[in-house]
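Exercise: predict the fold of this chain.
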Amino acid sequence: MSITTPAVGVFSPTALRSARLKVGLTQGDLADKLGTSLYRVSCWELGKSLPRTDRIPALAAILGLDVIELFVDPPVGDLAEYARRLVADWPALDDEQRAELRAALAPVVSGAA
C-alpha cells in the first residue's frame, strides 16, 4: 500500500522512522501527539498501512519536516543504510514490488553507468 504523488513519489515509512528517531520520539510519543495509537504508528513505519491524508501535515509539523519530506525515500543523508535495507528486504518483496523498485531505480542506475 502506498500513497503516490505525481511529482514527488511514494509516502516513505523510512523517512517517517528516521525523522521520528532524529527528534527523539518513541512511537508512543508520536502516537500521543497525533491522537492515534502506537499500533498505527508502528504500521506506518513498517509500511503496513498509511496515515490518513488529513494527518500528514500534523505529522510533518511534529517531526519538524515539510510535508514533501515524508514522500522522499530515502531520507537525505541515509543512502547507505537505505541501500542495505533494500538488499535485505528484496527476498520479501512480491513481483509487483520488485518491478516498481526496478522502474524507480532505472534512471539512477543508467545515469551512473
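Check your answer against the key: The two ends are 31 Å apart (CA to CA).
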